[in-house]
Amino acid sequence: MNVFDHKHIKNIVFVGAHNSGKTTLTETMLFEAGLINRRGTVENKTTVSDYQEIEQERGSSVFATPMHTEWRNYKINIIDTPGLDDFIGEILSSIRVADTVVTVLNAQHGVEVGTEIIWNYIDRYNKPTLFVVNQIDHLNADFEESFNSIKGLVGNNAVKVQYPLIVDGAQCIVDVLKMKMYKFGPEGGKPEKLPIPEDQKELADRLHNELVEKAAEKDEELLELFFEKGTLSEDEMRQGIQTGMLNHELFPVFCVSALQDMGSGRLMGFIDNVAPAAADLKPEQSVEGKVVERKTTAPTALFVFKTVQMQNLGKITFFKVKSGVVRANDKLVNSRNGETETLNQLFIMDGKNRSPVNKMVVGDIGATLKLKYTETNDTLHLENEPVTIRPVVYPEPRTQRSVSAMQPNEEEKLTDALRKLHSQDPTVTMAYSNELKQQILGCQGELHLSTIDWMLEHIYGVKAVLESPKVAYRETIKRSTSANYRHKKQSGGAGQFAQVHLKISPWYEGMPEPEGFNIRGKEEIDLPWGGKLVFYNCIVGGVIDLRYLPSIRKGIMEVMESGPLTGSYIRDVRVMVYDGKMHSVDSNDISFKIAGAHAFRDAFLNAGPKLLEPIRELTIKVPEEMVGNIMTDLQSRRAIILGIESLDNYQILKSVIPEAELYDYSTNLRSLTQGKATFHSKFHAYEPVPQHIQQELVKELETA
Fold first, then answer.
1. Residue 704 has pLDDT above 70, yes or no
2. Among 22, 52, 509, 617, which residue's beta carbon has the most beta carbons within 10 A?
């Protein structure tokens, strides 16, 4: 395999909404460059990128797939990504290591919600970006409308490099950078290069001049040349376009028909000649504040952007060489844990196929096998040259489920499988909730969840039970009440004796001290689960020895950790211990702990106990015409609308909603809006549960 220097390696990632044609375009580029002899199709399950069983079963990309091709003395590393934001982790990792983002649009739809979601991340990383309007030969294709939607997304710095045209029934593409027309036969492939037709010259000249001006604007030297000559040469235009792309200020727009192999060769030529290489990108700062130099002479550093578990090979680690040169059998240190890894083999991956190489230089993307201590987002560096590449920040889970093994003896197997899934996709999270006594799985949506379930069964051989997790309710009280409890146990010899009198009342910030008590001491305890316990010593006359008060408090805390209504945590209560009795022989710590717990439980059940439920702030971005349906659905979920703001053609709905109403919301929102709306939520507060729901919940637990 040819070895390319860092100036002749281009890393591109195909992103775009579902069904925009990214996988087909990838396949066509591999075919054009001669890497494959026949183009596969998604329908026939024969593409290089969608090779995994679940992708072939579903007919769409689930994983980001690295590949490469060679075109006119350049190596182009291509990463094909999923189009659904449920798999945003795969997309983000790929954007992070790409030098240029190729955003693919379906000419029938233009910019879609999926495009916008991805664009927000591209914009955050300031990545050089070009747009490709695909399926220009479709009967419902509308290139102009697609271009206008791109301008609506990125502003006036979107500029046409090409536009489609039908001449004598043949599909053509007019290129205003080269000022040529490419005419394609019915089967696509290599086009006929022709002069621009007379009736298109005025339009082509105008677009050419716009492209010249945009290119000149981005480079001071080119701007002076433009003022001198009134135009720029093709090479000067390329220079200006690259500068604009590097500054994230110019977004070239191309058009293709990936399915019919029209325009992909010209796109590859632009990627070769204009799109930035890793060596062209602005310097990157490490976590430590060091400049990571994109030079072959710099110390070696690799950034791990993807991990895959394959049944026959085990763990495959994908990396980008961020600086220096890496060779087979190199030993590198993991900056996260200090462990040394040996890279016994280096590979270039093309889907499931791997080609061994002896070395890789800065800017290149490759893979290695069976690293023990390295996961996605890690940095590997030379022993005496520590550095940490800035990691990808992944979004919080939008969907949660409790997860357990269908067979109780497979819990350990399930845990190991989930750990591997998290390694492969960090947006898959897992945490054990001591409060709920459940393993909680977090992911990005129902499609993501079904993929996880499929992989657990088919890849890791463990069937899982996925259910809505319990809600983390809280218990508290509405009024004050008193109670007392006598604990007495005699079994020969020293027995157990304690009597506790106490009063409880609701606690709130800034409330006055209790009246009618001789307060001897006060403890304010911030509870780990939120809220407070305020504990008063109001004992008079030494009827209970001070040394027993911690035991009484301990008994109260044990009840607060498992409330009488639903077993949920109790919060925001104050307790006044004001009387009791003890015995010189039989009283001890355990006796007062038991008495304190029983007295508190009895008082709690007579103090108007109430359930509190977690409320979340919910923000939804939805097309204007769909707001009514969303609001109706929210009201059925006990949500309160806080306000609506306009943003372009969208409305931003802000509301508060009980967490219990959110567990199927991802699926429901997608169904209501055909996938055109997005949402995120965060914890807001605890609020009382409606009385009828509280009664149902308590009844369910009593009959369980």
1. no
2. 22
pLDDT at 261 over 70: yes
Question: Longest Cα pair distance anywhere in the chain, in angstroms?
Answer: 115
Sign of CA dihedral 503, 507, 512, 518: positive
For residues 262 and 188, the answer to whether their CB atoms sit within 8 Å is yes
Which of 4-13, 144-153, 449-458, 480-489 is predicted with the least confidence, judged by mean pLDDT? 4-13
Whether residue 555 is predicted with pLDDT greater than 70 in this model: the reply is yes
Contact (Cβ atoms closer than 8 angstroms) between residue 264 and residue 28: yes
Closest CA to 219 of 248, 241, 199: 241
Q: Closest Cα partner for 573 from 483, 634, 694, 692?
A: 483
- The helix/strand/coil state of 477 is strand
DSSP 262: B
pTM recorded for the entire structure: 0.86
CA distance linking residue 175 with residue 266, whole number of Å: 9
CA atoms within 13 A on the CB side of 450: 10
Residues 6+ away with beta carbon under 8 Å from 299: 323, 324, 381, 382, 385, 387
Alpha helices in 379-536 (DSSP H): 411-424, 446-458
Report which DSSP code applies to 296.
Answer: T
Alpha helix (H) residue ranges in 166-308: 198-217, 220-229, 234-246, 264-273
> Is 340:333 a contact under the CB 8 Å cutoff?
yes
Q: Is the dihedral of CA 451, 455, 458, 463 positive or negative?
A: negative
- Residue 117 pLDDT class (50, 70, 90 cuts): confident
Measured over the CA atoms of residue 144, residue 146, residue 152 and residue 154, the dihedral's sign is negative
125: left (phi over 0), alpha (psi -120 to 50) or beta: alpha
**Residue 598, phi then psi, degrees to nearest 5:** -65, -45
Q: In the chain, how many H helices and how many E strands?
A: 16, 38
- Please tell me the predicted confidence (pLDDT) of residue 27: 92
Closest CA to 631 of 614, 613, 662, 654: 654
